[in-house]
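Q: What would this chain look like folded?
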Amino acid sequence: MCEFKSALVLQSEEIITYPFTESHEDLIDIVGIKDNGKAFVRIEFVPANNQYTDVDKYVLKVDQKDTPDWWTTEVVERTTTKMKELIRRMIVTGDKTIIVGGQYILKNCSVKTCKACNIAAMLGSSEVGVMWDSSKVGEMWDSSKVGKMLGSSKVAHDMRK
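A: My prediction, written as structure tokens:
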């Protein structure tokens, strides 16, 4: 099973991700590329100890047995830098009226409305007023909470103690 945040890295060093799936096979199908063992590398950029907002503690993992010759230390370093920036753009810490589409990590914030969102994690005192349009929360931690879930919105894992 693929972990947060899954991606494909092409030989051109382009990173392929999609906000609504962590499956490498889905990403391959979305892009429409053939798995010849050389075109891309399956990676996961995983938060150490569930530290979702500390991008410097993420670990880059290769999710395949062998890697092509072009997957060098330098490519790994550049990929790590790009993945850190991708995660930074997902983090919401201030109050928002609405977030729409895409993947987010919420920490100590209040969001009135989420529409068609994939929230990887809610941390601290994060709060969502209303979730619409198949919005999903992957993990809820600490004192985070969701007011109303409408349509097919759901919380996958409630990690609150």
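The CA atoms of residues 120 and 138 lie 5 Å apart.
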